[in-house]
Each structure stands twice: as structure tokens, then as C-alpha cells.
Amino acid sequence: MKYLLLIVFALSHLTVCCQIYPDSLNNERDEYNLGFEKIIPGSNSSVGWHTGITKSGFKIVIDSNEKHNGRYSLSIECINEEGASNYAMTGMFIPAKYVGFEVEVKFYLKMKNVKEHVDFPFRIDDGDDDKLQFTNLLSRRIYGTQDWKQYSLKLPLQKESSKIYLFPLLYGSGKMWIDDIQVLIDGVDIRFARFKPNYNPNAPKSINYGNNAAASGKVKVKNAELYYETYGLGEPLLLLHGNSQSINVFKKQIKEFSKSYKVIAVDTRGQGNSTDNNSEPLSYNLYAEDIKVLLDSLHISKVNILGWSDGGNTGLILAAKYPDYVKKLAVTGACTNPNEAVSSSTLAEVRKAIEGLKDKSDEKSKYQVKLFTMLLTEPHITPSDLKYIKAPVLVMAGEKDMILEKHTRFIADNISKSQLFIFKGASHYVPVEKALEFNNKVLMFLNRD
């Protein structure tokens, strides 16, 4: 588990590092330096390969003594005890601009005295830098000493694919060499694979939702300031995120919904780019009051709302207390009372997380305690409150949601104009896990007269 968490962290950071260096994209026939034969003058580094995450105690260099073919290979070596419990990786970014259904990566690997394991994470992202597909060697647990041996990894090439990432990696002590990497599109070497007919190498960069100054605004509320961003034209659609999240978590929804709605995405107080100077405990009633002030400040008298988790709780309170403000409401993973909505083991996990944060003195940790504490104590929405909701409400959750399905059904049963939908195979994070299906369901609801 520790290794998996490290990989998630490392890949998210190495993705950024690889994007900074596009030189490897500019060759006419995509002669990527997959054999490490092109050396950066005056260095011991290979063209197109970039060290994104190298913990102390490691060395990544081009090796002219050990190679499978040609003149060089790439080596990653743990050089002292400090690296024995760490890892190091290098990476290459290749645009997924090819016509095909499958990407295969073949490579030769050699290792010496590897105590933990070597790996080769292989990932495909979409245009928003979100992971579409991922695989690696972890299930094979490759370690020890061995001579050159070829390995293969495969992933489907979806039409949304935008970037291919390769990440040779050494975890723990020992030394590894990698050489003669080959990338195949439907069995054809990438040098000869066909390009997508509509591929645009100068496509605009994806919008940094949640940190897009051009679309942003701020509104003062009680002892706080709310940060929001606005996209698109049409009827207003307010997006409310969950606990410890921000606007960015809705990027797949903003991109789609702004085609037909004026999307207003908000950072809840104290989260994202919003501030909070209130010393009192947090509550969803306070969140609802904040949103009412925001809507009044923007001169919006009636709004559609999509709320996820905490945002769903806030949406339910808004629709009950201020029914004239809400045209339609869609919620996913919402609850009315934590003691009825989730399992005792989930509540225990939250308590444990709070205890782990209490010894920390930084402001971020202190605020996180307030956020997690609210999960244990809030909300207190009664069946009578739900019956005050007059707007049409789409009540959603994942089949494997932390919110118990019987509770999601309870919410729907107590709202007069409700629809219920459970996403098969999804968890509490269905807006991310099943973005296309989720967006279609919400849009069908909003667009229906």
C-alpha cells in the first residue's frame, strides 16, 4: 500500500515534469530516444528522458558499459542506505496522436542485487491530464539479480487519449538497467504508426479549473471570502464540491455543462481559494447561508444546483430553506445525518484521521480537523425538511458509495419530486469514476421540462 501511494504521488508530479520538456516531440518521424542513444551534450543524461522524482540516495545516468544493444542504456542505482526505503524514476512523454486500439510497450531490463523491486509504470492520460489507463510490473514483483530480459505491457488506446507516459523505476536498494524500449500501436512500431487525421500539435492547453484568474470572482460572506469561477452562457448552474475538495474536482463537469449552461463553480469557505476567518465550528447551514449571499451578490434569483457529498448536503438545505432560489437540484453522495448515512467503521476512520491531525500545529491541519469534525456532527436534516423541497431533485449515489444505499433511497422517498439513480460499480467518487455517464444523467435531468 505504501508503494502504491508513492506511485500515485510520483506520477502526478512527474507528469508535470515531463510536460515541461517537449523537445522529444519535434522529430519528423517521431524518432523517440527509446534506446537512449542520444545524449545531451556535456551531461550524462539522455535526450527526451527527464528525472521527475529522484529521492536522495539514488543516481540516474547513461551507462556505456552495460547495454542490451547499441552504445548506451539507462541505469538507476541506489548508492547509499538512505535510498534503501525510497525510490527513483525517470520518464518520457509521448503524445497519443496515433490511430489504433492498443498501445504495447516492450523493453529490456537487467538488474543487480535489487532487494525490493523494479517497475515500469505505463500510463495514458486524456486532454485534462486525468488518468485513463494505467498498468505496471508490480503484480510480478521483479527483484534480485538477472541478465537482460524482455518484458511487455499493454493498454487500450481510447479515443480520448492525449498523452502516453513511460516511467522506469527502482524501489529500494540495488541497480537496474533499461534499454531498447519499443512502443507499438496495434503491433506497428510508433515510428511508422498512422497519425490521427485531426491531430493538432498546437492544441490549446487544458484550463486550470480552480486557478483560472480570467474566469474568477470573489464574494465576501460572514467572516470569509468565497472564490468562484464562471464558464459558459445560459441558465445558471451552481456546482458545490465535497469535503476537502475544490472547484478542480468538477473539471469534467465544467467542461461539458458549460456548453449549454452558465456554470458557477464555488470553493466552499476555507477550501480551495476561499478563505475562512470564522472560529466557530463548521456547519452545512453556514455553507447554505454563504451560497445564498453568493447568489444574491451575483443577482441570481433562481439557479440549478449540482452538489456532490458536502455540496449535496448544502444543496438540500438550500432547497428546503430557500425554495424560491432553486429551480432543479441534483445531488450525489448526500446525507441527512451521519449516524444514519454511513457505517460505524466509516465514522471510526474519520475519528482516527482527526486524532492523527490533532498533534500537528500548522493551520492547514487545524482546519482539516474542523472539516473532518463536521463529517461526524453534521448535517441534521429531518424528513420534514426534505418535504419542504418543492424543486425537482435527482438523488444519486454510487453502488459502492460510503453513503449507504438505504439512506440514499430514504432521501429520495421523502422528496415529492424526486428521481433516484444508483451508478453500478461506482463509489462515492462517481463524478470522476464515471464522468461521461454521470454528466449524461445530470444533463438529461436538467434539460427535461
TrEMBL record:
Any Pfam family matching the protein: Abhydrolase_1
Source organism superkingdom: Bacteria
Keywords annotated in UniProt: Hydrolase, Signal
Signal sequence bounds: 1-18
AB hydrolase-1 domain sequence ranges: 236-340
SUPFAM superfamilies in alphabetical order: alpha/beta-Hydrolases
Any one GO molecular function term: serine hydrolase activity
Keyword Hydrolase assigned: yes
Protein name: Alpha/beta hydrolase
Species per Swiss-Prot/TrEMBL record: Pedobacter jejuensis
